[in-house]
Write a structure and sequence with these properties.
Blueprint (H helix, E strand, L loop, with lengths): L6 H11 L11 E5 L2 E7 L11 E10 L4 E8 L4 E8 L2 H10 L8
Antiparallel strand pairs: 1-2, 2-3, 3-4, 4-5
C-alpha cells in the first residue's frame, strides 16, 4: 500500500464525496495532511460559521501499524478533532462519511 497521503486515495475520497447525501450543492475539498487527508467545505448551513467560510468537515488517517483507517470529526467549539470510528477499509469509512445519517460531519 502506498504511503499516505497519496494521489490515488485522494481521488477515491473526492469521487466518494461527489456521491454524498448532505449539502450536495457545495464543493468540498480534500487536502493532503500528514498521514492522511482533511475534508473541508464552505459552511452552507451557517450553523458553524455564520459567514459561510470554509470549515473542517472530516479527518481521514491511515494507521499503517494497525492497517486501519481512522475517521474523525471536528468539534468546532473546542477546535479539536474527535475520533468517530476506525475501519478496515477506506471504502467502509467513505460509506459512513458520505451517508452521515447523524450529521456528525456535514453540520
Amino acid at each position: 500500500m502506498a504511503p499516505h497521503p497519496n494521489e490515488f486515495d485522494q481521488h477515491r475520497i473526492e469521487r466518494a464525496l461527489a456521491r454524498r447525501v448532505r449539502y450536495r450543492y457545495v464543493a468540498p475539498r480534500v487536502v493532503a495532511e500528514a498521514g492522511g487527508y482533511k475534508v473541508e467545505s464552505p459552511c452552507c448551513s451557517r450553523n458553524v460559521d455564520t459567514e459561510g467560510d470554509v470549515i473542517d468537515i472530516a479527518l481521514i488517517q491511515y494507521d499503517a501499524a494497525e492497517r486501519l483507517w481512522c475517521l474523525s470529526r471536528k468539534n468546532h467549539k473546542a477546535g479539536e478533532w474527535l475520533l468517530v470510528n476506525v475501519f478496515g477499509t477506506l471504502h467502509e469509512l467513505l460509506a459512513v462519511l458520505t451517508e452521515d445519517a447523524s450529521r456528525k460531519f456535514w453540520q
